[in-house]
Amino acid sequence: MQLSVVIPCYNELKTISKVVEAIKASPVKNCEIIIVDDCSIDGTRELLQSSIESQVDKVIYHQKNRGKGAALRTGFAVATGDIVIVQDADLEYDPQEYLLMIQPILDDKADVVFGSRFQGGRPHRVVYYWHMVGNTFLTILSNMLTNINLTDIETCYKAFRREVIQSINIEENRFGFEPEITAKVAKMECRIYEVGISYYGRTYKEGKKIGWKDGVQAILCIIKYNLFAKYKIYKRSEYN
Q1: Which domains does the chain have, with CATH numbers?
Q2: Which burial class, exposed, middle or buried, applies to 238 when counting CB atoms under 10 A from its CB (0-12, 13-18, 19+)?
Q3: What region holds the Glycosyltransferase 2-like domain (predicted)?
């Protein structure tokens, strides 16, 4: 079994090297590491070119900033592992939990696994109250339209069978990726599991990027991809 780790990266000079080190130290030893630099301007790109390219499997450079969803679309397209997982470049999520994330897929119980920051007893840094309220609202709204019972749709940690994620046309370029992918895997009738993970959230001073405008866009995406968007959906029987 090979795990492809896709890292969307924008202005993460302080953490990108540590993230790569943490992935290499994870309990899953056969990892394909794919970094997509989304036109960083803080020196991240230069660091990738000078010292990190030789340590990972692929580094892809966007020539203009396009957003997290666009970076993931690029990374998913070139992944070759049996399972694909998203890893943010900011150290908020711990690669030591990869095995926890992918075990339901390895056991052939799941096609998609969400890592929930609000489930289980793992460490969770206390940060922004209104972020939690907003995320809870978005999750409830999404659940009402998908009829699945998730606790955290905005989590970074999502693991997929490769054939599942590569069968999906990702349309959103920014953080709308999260509600879009949730709606689409639900419509595909994928076997979706959720596991509790730890979360080491950072503040805006430490580089957090998501804001209230992304929350508004998420609401629009939940409505769009569940009620109005027309797209080809492959049922699970079609990609098995």
Answers
A1: 3-239 (3.90.550.10)
A2: exposed
A3: 4-166
